Amino acid sequence: MYLKYSVIILFFINKVSAQTVNVGELSVAPNTQLATVFDFDNKLSGDFLNDGNFYVYSNFKNDGLVTFTDTSDGKTFFIGQKVQSIEGLETAHFQNIEFNNLSDVTPFLLKTSIMVNKMSAFKNGIVDGASFNGKMIFDQNAFHSDASNLSFVDGQVENIGNLNFEFPVGDNFYFRPTYHDKASNISNVYTTQYFFQSAGSTHPYTSREESILSIDEVEYWNLIQNQGSEKIILSLTLDKNTTPASFFVEDPTKELAITRWDESTSKWINEKGVTTDLLTGATYSKLITTQVSGYGLFTIAMVKKANPEPPGDLIIHNAISPNGDGVNDTFLIKGITKYPDNKVEIYNRWGIKVFDANSYNESDIMFRGFSDGRTTVNRDAGLPAGTYFYILRYKKGDETISKSGYLYLGSDK
Questions:
Q1: Which UniProt keywords apply (predicted)?
Q2: Biggest alpha carbon distance in the chain?
Q3: What are the beta bridge partners of residue 154?
Q4: 106 pLDDT exceeds 60?
Q5: 128-135 long-range CB contacts below 8 Å, 24 or more apart?
Q6: Pick from 408, 334, 314: which is nearest to 369 by CA?
Q7: Residues 6 or more apart from 325 whose CB is under 8 A from it?
Q8: Cα separations in angstroms, 180 against 57, 67, 159, 214
Q9: End-to-end Cα, the chain, rounded Å
């Protein structure tokens, strides 16, 4: 039921504390709108249901219930000419939300937790949760758009569910996202925050594995697995505005990798990784992808280039050109038929799984340049040319062997 009379507007003529206060039931029907130029205060007794368009031009506080109807497409707009505070004792649930405020470079002060069910649009203005221990939560099917150096979350971002996800995090006016693929468990929960600063004396950069030559000491990501047990595919971004220049200098004896602070050994460990260049126009310059072995603090490292593995009974051909000429049309793992208990996974540069197969062989179960992964990737269209990341696991006697590396997919024309 949509009620119009449950909004109580209090005017304090001699003060600047005019407010729009809800103490009962307030509903915005589909295809209608409600706007408040005053501070909005949803009291403990207040139930606010937004299935229409709700425009907030000042501060927002929720101590009650803020929610929506699942079938609606309601949207809340935070728009203002001054800094806006988002606070309250309870988590506000938004179907869709838009941040668009040009009054300051950091116009949104996030002092509570808010949850997005569908889409968050980052138009203008950084959402500062780091200064107030605020958190932005994306539910299982939620995504975001338009994040850039002009608008992102400076603070914790949590994601719930099994979809691949770009975490819209940054710090000090720089958007520095991570990309996570969370396999198949919808109960997985992860939180990420980016810091444009040193990890500090409690994580000394001199304490590291021998293969690590140097570490990016001016930035890091903190990745927490709140719930779940899987080891995700993680992609970190490099940006010439924040990442040291030495990490962009090519050297045949060195390569980039992801490094993680390992609490059990009190040192930075080499998680390895595959590096790809990004398309022109991206706000960051390179991407490193790997499957992590744990969680905590991550950053980028320069490591000794690994020596090629000695010849074995498997030969992995890491380039395919699916143009139908009969040459390199598939991802060939020569000898894999001897080990039928195997699994092959292939990910694109964003850490999105595009292929997943058990009992990979040399005849019919093979990667041919088409997606066989997420429903978010078109299975009927050939994948774009570029660099991909593969993981191969197979049983050899009682031993499970794991191999990973890059795979270059050429054009199908």
A1: Signal
A2: 84
A3: 128
A4: yes
A5: 128/154, 128/155, 129/153, 129/154, 129/155, 129/156, 130/154, 130/155, 130/156, 130/171, 130/193, 131/155, 132/87, 134/86, 134/109, 134/110, 135/110, 135/191
A6: 408
A7: none
A8: 34, 27, 10, 25
A9: 58
